[in-house]
């Protein structure tokens, strides 16, 4: 073995060690959430406050994005369908794409960027300025007040935002379709609902709940474990977004496999 | 003999290879203001963080108000924490809340059945006593460093603690505001009948607020006594340089 390879060995082993320690830490954090979510005191007021921040304050961004996604996807799909003379299938195609995949995925990715980073930065800055310690020494459970409330709020609000995004994207799509073809809103939505099944809606909602939980727990975990001053806060916010997005794609893939298996069964 | 509210024996704490506290012994008596001095990184803050259970010692005993801190359950530790006020170095005000909400936060979570009127009266009374009644609806970002410190102290006093712990109360403040904070520490002892530990490396603060000084050097208390006993005629070079820097060079 060369000298260089020898030098690298401890570094690699350190990295592996750090990876598994991080994994165990994250697992313990998730376990702690499920343990503390049922333990009083219940911070209802803070949950509502967080729901407002996460849900209502995300509406403008989600509306704009959803609307654009609907228009763009419709415009991109039209040439391919018109080659086969099947532009009348556009509402069906769009509804399946939006409800099954694009609505949840686009909403979750935007929320990971907006909400996940803000949770990571907020809790991270509270950590480095000793605000979390201040809660602890005043006999208040900071995990309950900061983590449990935010994770509940994201888990509740992301599915609602997804439904809203689906609706706005379909409206955008209708606008695009009606600009080129003669179709009424009723006909458009009849076609939309005929194309999607109960399984599509249920899987979309369940997936959104999972995405919401992921965004909340990752943001809180990264913020709660931040260190090294303001640099650490920036890192926590960044890591919250990257990690949440990565996990959302993995979850999307897994849920898709499960739903396809159910569909085949 | 005066009643001891804090009794520390053989306390040791390390972070990795770094030994911070190496067998510390110290007592705090009821009604006393004890000043703990030492260089930055000497373990002063670690000592008071162990006192409230934010950190755990490696070995030794930390007895606070008759309870051995390291053996307490979470519920018992929280009950003890209600009897201790901790004023943080950077005030640690919750920056997403107004001054009123900052002060309400520990109160409504720990004392049940208080009416809105009682809560407001308590908050206004405390803000009056720290000289900032007008700041009740301000956000922490709108306050100066000295005002933040005062509100931080008021927030800890709202639970009527028996022991006050001040972590670097005058750090980063101008001399006039330092003097105001020193007066506030003395005023708190007189009005609220507290025993206090003041962590600082500011000898003016120590002289103004402390009944006894304890100098933490190399992980142990090197000199404990009144200001006159410890400082002006110190033979230990490290303590002497501490005194010279504060009272001659500054």
Supply database-style keywords.
heterodimer, A: 265 residues, mainly alpha, 9 helices, B: alpha/beta, Rossmann fold, six-stranded mixed sheet, four-stranded antiparallel sheet
CATH C-level name of chain B: Alpha Beta
Question: How many beta-strand elements of chain B?
Answer: 10
CATH H level, superfamily name of chain B: P-loop containing nucleotide triphosphate hydrolases
Largest interface: A-B, 15 and 24 residues
Number of domains of chain B: 1
Work out the helix count of chain A. 9
User: Span from first to last CA of chain A?
Assistant: 54 Å
**Assembly state here?**
heterodimer
Task: Tell me the major beta sheet of chain B.
Answer: 6 strands, mixed
Low-confidence stretches of chain A: none
CATH topology of chain B: Rossmann fold
The pLDDT mean of chain A sits at 91
Organism (chain A): Algoriphagus winogradskyi
Keywords (chain A): Membrane, Transmembrane, Transmembrane helix
InterPro entries (chain A): Permease_MalE
Protein name (chain A): Phospholipid/cholesterol/gamma-HCH transport system permease protein
Explain this structure to me?
- The complex is a heterodimer of chains A (265) and B (250).
- With 265 residues, chain A is mainly α.
- Chain A has one domain.
- In chain A, 87% of the residues lie in helices and 0% in strands.
- Chain A has 9 helices and no strands.
- In chain A, α3 (59-83) packs parallel to α6.
- The longest helix of chain A has 39 residues, at 90-128.
- Chain A starts with a helix and ends with a helix.
- Chain B is of the alpha/beta class.
- Chain B has one domain (4-95, 162-249): Rossmann fold (3-Layer(aba) Sandwich), CATH 3.40.50.300.
- In chain B, 39% of the residues lie in helices and 26% in strands.
- Chain B contains 9 helices and 10 strands.
- Chain B has helices spanning 44-51, 74-81, 99-110, 116-129, 145-157, 175-192, 203-209, 227-230, 237-249; strands at 4-15, 18-29, 33-38, 59-64, 67-68, 84-87, 163-167, 195-200, 212-217, 220-225.
- Chain B has a 6-stranded mixed sheet with strand order 6-7-8-3-9-10, with helices on both faces. A 4-stranded antiparallel sheet of chain B has the order 2-1-4-5, with helices on one face.
- In chain B, α5 (145-157) packs parallel to α6.
- Chain B is globular and about 55 Å long.
- Chain B starts with a strand and ends with a helix.
- The relative contact order of chain B is 0.17.
- The mean pLDDT of chain B is 90.
- The chains are: A mainly alpha (265), B alpha/beta (250).
- At the A-B interface, α4 and α5 of A face α2 and α3 of B.
